[in-house]
Each structure stands twice: as C-alpha cells, then as structure tokens.
Amino acid sequence: MKREKTNPELKELIDKFKRGSKAYKLIGKYLSRPKRKSAPVNLAKINRVAMDGDVVIVPTKVLAIGNLDKKVKIYALSYSKACKAKILNSGSEIHGLSEVVDKKIKGRIVV
What we know:
By secondary structure, the protein is α/β, with parallel strands linked by helices. It has a single domain (about 10-110), classed as CATH 3.100.10.10. Helices cover about 40% and strands about 20% of the residues. The protein has helices at about 10-20, 20-30, 45-50, 80-90, 100-105, and strands at about 40, 55-65, 75-80, 95, 110. Strand 3, helix 4 and strand 4 (about 95) form a beta-alpha-beta unit. It is globular, with a radius of gyration of 14 Å. The chain starts with 7 loop residues before the first helix and ends with a strand.
C-alpha cells in the first residue's frame, strides 16, 4: 500500500518540482520517497562535492557532521541548528528548497 505525503506544503513543493525540467523531476521524485529511504546529507559530503562559489541543492535535511571550508549557496529542505551555525560561519548562504523552483535555480544536486 502506497502512502501519500500528508504535509500540504511538501505536497505542493513536490508538484512544482515534478512539473519542471528533468533535474527538477528527479528532485520531485526524491522528495516523494518515504522518509525512511531518504538519508540526510552531512556538511562533509557537501564540502567534498562542491567547489567554491557553487550552488548546491539538497532534497533532504542537512546535518552538521564535518566542516564546510568553501563558500557555497545551499538550498535544502531543512537544516539542523548546529548545521546552520557552521554554514553561516563559513561565509556560505542558507536557502529553502522552495526557492529553487520559484527562481529556477540550477546547481549540483547532492543526495
């Protein structure tokens, strides 16, 4: 039995992503997966994958494990409190995932 998401804001966000480009459809598909199948992303992984000045899109929660040495713009579904502090201390920017669709932002997708 397939369950549907109950959060109306998340449902709307998934619909917006699924109506977009191929990359956006991939993010929408990832967001519609069960929560137990979507692992959070650590700062260490973002630091490994991203280059200085990159835009990073994370369709899950970002956790504070590791450090961020680069200045990047991170768009994610949610952030842990400690993670927000580490990101801002590194000079990077924090944004919500809904801004990706509204502003048609392109970047590296980290899952």
